[in-house]
Every structure is written in C-alpha cells, then in structure tokens.
Amino acid sequence: MSMNPSSVLLTDRVAVVTGGGAGIGRGIARGFAAFGAKVAIWERDADTAASAAEEVGGLGITTDVRDSAQVDEALARTVAELGPVTILVNNAGGVFFSSLLETSENGWDALYRANLKHVILCTQRVARTMVAEGNSGSIISVTSIEGVRAAPGYASYAAAKAGVINFTKTAALELAPHGIRVNALAPDITLTEGMATVAPPGAEAGFRLTVPMGRPGHVDEMAGAAVFLASELSSYVTGQTIHVDGGTQASSGWYHHPKTGAYVLGPS
C-alpha cells in the first residue's frame, strides 16, 4: 500500500462533532470541513450550534447528547440531511471543582453524564448505523490528561475521563471486525474561549513553565490530530489515546525552572 496525499482527505464523508459549537469541538469541525467532510454539529447551545454550522457550511442541531431520545433524533436528522455518518467525535464535556469529601451524588452523576455517559451513548448509536449500513468508520473521543494522572479536586471528572480511555480500548476491539476504528485524543492546556474566561492573570507565563514545549496548545492542533484519526492515514490505528499536550504527559512532574529554564522535578 503506497502513500498518497489524498489519503488525508475526508471528501463527502459525514462527520458528527458533539459539543462542536465552541472550543476544541469547533476547531475540529473546521478542520474536518477544510478536508472535505460534511459536518453536523450536535450542541446544546442553539446559538453556537447555528454559528458553528454556518462557519463550516454544515448542519447545526440543538442536542443534549446526555439524552438518548435527543441523540436518536439528531442522528436520524443527520442521516436524512447529510447521509450516513462515518466519523464521530465525542467532544462534549464539562467540569467543575469539587473535593472528594464534599461532592454530592448529584455532582458525581452530573460529571459522569457530562464526560462518559454521552461517549458510550453516541458511540453505540452511531456504530449501530455504521454496522447496519455495512460502512467502516472512525470514532474519536476527546478525553484529557486528567484521565491518566491524579487531579485533586476533580476526582469524579478524572475518573470519567479515565473511563473514556478504557472504553476506547474495549470499543475498539468490539468494533474492529466491522472496520470501525475507535481512538481518543487527550489534550492538556488548550487555548479555548472557556479557558480564557477562567484563567487567572499571568497564566500563560505559568504554561510556559509547565508545558515542555513552552506554550499552550491551539484548537487547530487538536483538529490536526483528529483529521489524522478520521482519515485513511490512520487506517491501522485503533484503541489508542494520543496525547496532544506539548509533552505534558511525558514530563511526569518535570517542569521548566522559572529562572533558568532548565528542567527540575518538583518545587525548587
């Protein structure tokens, strides 16, 4: 099998991006559209769903992907208007600080539903249509570096993101006989609208110290990895989690000293 530049193209393939109205999801939607895909945005916020769809020339559907009936309705509409879905990006998610001792059951349930339940639900529903149609495809879930390291104050969120990583492996094995690949992307610090609103003053200087590459990531860099996983360039890649994080996961606690720039481990 020889390499061909056209292998990266997604021409006329139908892609669903959940939570695609802003941030990483919107960046991925733009990337898919740039490489030829027809994109459906499934997003709770009607305004951002519409604006993102307009930007990428796609379909915006106001959908709460935590609700099975809404997912089924969105999928049926996507297939009717764009065609069979062969790419799914499970990007929707949410987080809030809550210590282990203080988190309520409602808090746990909210974090599970926002970060893991919809991944399982959307994967199942879209994969069923792929199998029924006899189509191969690519399913990509956005997890987090917090899925592979401790996250004090975010235990339930981190557990859900770890669940996404393990679910990715298991789903990959179950769906491989059908020609459906399942992978995940794990970002760390990525500049999004949401981060801009919560990051304290001077945060970017701290990012330069904590990220080995010395800067936060951009949503377009997540999009590049997503295009790779969606395209035929990754035709033999499944069950993997790719860390798009500037080297943070590899650093295991090493960071740039604020004065010398040299790597140090722990407080100095």
Explain what this protein looks like in three dimensions.
By secondary structure, the protein is of the alpha/beta class. The protein is 44% helix and 18% strand. The protein contains 9 helices and 11 strands. The chain has helices spanning 23-34, 46-56, 68-81, 105-133, 155-175, 193-198, 203-210, 219-230, 248-251, and strands spanning 14-18, 38-43, 59-62, 85-90, 137-142, 180-187, 190-191, 217-218, 241-244, 254-256, 263-265. Strands 3-2-1-4-5-6-9 form a 7-stranded parallel beta sheet, sandwiched between helices. Strands 7-8 form a two-stranded parallel ribbon. Helix 2 (46-56) links the parallel strand 2 (38-43) and strand 3. Helix 4 (105-133) runs parallel beside helix 5 (155-175). It is globular, with a radius of gyration of 19 Å. 42% of the residues are buried.
Give a brief outline of the structure.
The chain is an alpha/beta fold and 268 residues long.
Protein traits:
single chain; 268 residues; alpha/beta; two-stranded parallel sheet; 9 helices; 11 strands
Low-pLDDT stretches: none
Number of strands: 11
Question: How would you sum up the major sheet?
Answer: 7 strands, parallel
How many distinct helices?
9
Over all CA atoms, what is the radius of gyration? 19 Å
Mean pLDDT: 94
Side-by-side strand order of the widest sheet: 3-2-1-4-5-6-9
Strand content: 15-25%
Distance between the termini: 52 Å
Structural class: alpha/beta
**SSE sequence, one letter per element:** EHEHEHEHEHEEHHEHEHEE
Percent in helix: 40-55%
Overall shape: globular
